[in-house]
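Re: weekly structure request thread

Next one in the queue (172 aa):
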Amino acid sequence: MNIHKVEVGNLVIWLLLLGSLISPNHLSGQIVGGMFVENGLQSSENREGIGGELGFEVAFLPIDVFGSGTYFPSKKQAESFRVWSVGARTKIIPFPLVKPYIVGGISLTESRISNVETSQYEEGSFAGIGIDLKVKDLRIYAEGKYEMFDESESFVRFRMGVSLLWGGLSFW
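Done, posted below.
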């Protein structure tokens, strides 16, 4: 684990602590869960994947914290891979219905060649921008992110998804 990944985790923790100290109201949030499709550009080859996400939206800060997993099936004898991510989103400008945001975090990619039993793992980090539309308890979003790995390899990923919001998650 490198220093950069530890700094990202510390930043998320400090933002949550700062928000809890300055918020005069009852602290609550919403659980966010949903599915998405993702298109990744890897070594000049487009790869499509499907994934799921679970996290929570903090009411006293403009931030969502999430964990997600994406599966990219093998394509023409190439390897299949899974991407596990932990990250945070924060709103840029609070518009009434459509909300642009920035996203960042850390990821772990597991690559597996179809006829080989062993897997390779790579750690990385990502940053990107997106936009979401919230209608009652439904969130529709699209985002683009740039993912960097330790082996100086990088990917561009585009994600579109739908999430459901469940209220009543009380922090204290």
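The beta strands are 28-42, 45-58, 63-72, 80-91, 98-112, 119-135, 138-149, 154-170. The helical segments are 3-22.
Next request, please.
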